[in-house]
């Protein structure tokens, strides 16, 4: 049942996101608008578009959310495998389950490490630059 629904949700989300589907929806809205004068812009005429769009929107929310959930889990699993199989820190595996406070703390730790690495890089560049100028002075003498 899960596999069948996943297949249905993926196909529906793919079709719903296509340019052809958009054009069909535009054509339906235009046809509805053109039909307005023939129906005297009645409440029934208005109810048709309101009910149709409400039902489609309601169902699409759940289909798209299901697709997003599966994509999120698949992406997270791939990232976890990359972290596990590389020199990256394994503490990052599973961080999607942390609280907002814990995620903020981990993010700040990463920013501090990045600043430290940038400072080291800046010092190295300055030293190379200094040596380059000292080297030029030594070759001139």
TrEMBL record:
Membrane spanning residue stretches: 20-39, 45-64
Record-linked InterPro entries: Iron_permease_Fet4 (IPR007251)
Keywords: Membrane, Transmembrane, Transmembrane helix
GO biological process: transmembrane transport
Coiled-coil boundaries: none
Location of the region described as Disordered in the Swiss-Prot/TrEMBL record: 114-141
Name this polypeptide is given: Low affinity Fe/Cu permease
Originating organism: Variovorax boronicumulans
Lineage: Bacteria, Pseudomonadati, Pseudomonadota, Betaproteobacteria, Burkholderiales
């Amino acid at each position: 049942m899960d596999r069948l629904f996943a297949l249905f949700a993926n196909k529906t989300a793919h079709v719903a996101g296509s340019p052809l589907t958009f054009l069909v929806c535009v054509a339906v809205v235009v046809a509805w608008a053109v039909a307005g004068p023939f129906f005297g812009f009645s409440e029934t005429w208005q109810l048709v578009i309101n009910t149709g769009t409400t039902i489609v929107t309601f169902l699409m929310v759940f289909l798209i959310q299901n697709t997003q959930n599966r994509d999120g889990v698949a992406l997270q699993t791939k990232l976890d495998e990359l972290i596990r199989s590389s020199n990256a820190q394994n503490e990052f595996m599973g961080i999607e389950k942390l609280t907002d406070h814990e995620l903020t703390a981990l993010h700040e730790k990463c920013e501090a490490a990045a600043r430290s690495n940038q400072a080291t890089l800046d010092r190295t560049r300055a030293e190379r630059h200094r040596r380059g100028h000292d080297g030029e002075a030594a070759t001139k003498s």
